[in-house]
Every structure is written in C-alpha cells, then in structure tokens.
Amino acid sequence: MFARGVHMHLKPNSIHEFKERIEKDVIPALRKQKGFRNELTFVAPSGREVFTISLWDRAESADAHNRPSYPDVTEILAALVEGTPDVETETFDVADSTFHEIAAAVTA
C-alpha cells in the first residue's frame, strides 16, 4: 500500500463547506479511481490548515490519480483553499498500519 500527502491552507470560515465538499464530491470521485483505498483528512484546531493522506494499492495508482482526476479535485476545492495545495512529490510505502493489515486480510 502507498500513501500520498497534500497540505492546504483554507480560507477563513470555510471548514464546514470544505468538509462537505470532501464528503460529497472528493471521496466519491476518489472511489472511482483504480487502486484507491482510503482518504484521511486532518484539520488543525484553527480550521485553517488541512493535511490529507490518500492510500493506494500501488505507487502507480497514486501517480495516475495526479494526471486526470487531481485537477478536478482542486477545482472542487478552489473557492475554499488559499493558494495552491502542496502535494508531496514522493509516494510513500506504508510500512505498517491497522488499516493496512485489514486491507491485506480482505484481499487474501
């Protein structure tokens, strides 16, 4: 399993709409992507900083997401995000996680 991180700065008072867009638009779009496994969204107590981690079956799946569908995600969130989201250029191998163990058991 592989992970990709994205860091964003939200506009003031946009956290509720951001969460709604993630739930209603972004997650359903990600679920249509080949190899997508999970999305984790972390919000700072200020409600202005967000870090997301998407989990993928293979590094190639995470990389493939960046080409056709990532621009759609940034468009969905554009009115809520200040500047450009900072996407990790490197895909990370998930060394260990409880989700990783569950996913491996389901595939076995």
Biggest sheet, in brief? 5 strands, antiparallel
Distance between the termini: 14 Å
User: Could you tell me the mean pLDDT?
Assistant: 83
SSE arrangement, N to C: EHEEHHEEH
Task: Output the number of helix runs.
Answer: 4
| Dominant shape | globular
Approximately what portion of the residues adopt beta-strand conformation? 25-35%
Radius of gyration (CA) equals: 14 Å
Derived structural class: alpha+beta
Tell me which oligomeric state these chains represent: single chain
Low confidence ranges: none
Tally of DSSP β-strands: 5
Helix content: 25-40%
Structure overview:
- The chain is of the alpha+beta class and 108 residues long.
- The chain has four helices and five strands; from the N terminus they run βαββααββα.
- Strands 1, 2, 3, 4 and 5 form a five-stranded antiparallel β-sheet that branches.
- The chain is globular and about 35 Å long.
- The model has no long low-confidence stretch (mean pLDDT 83).
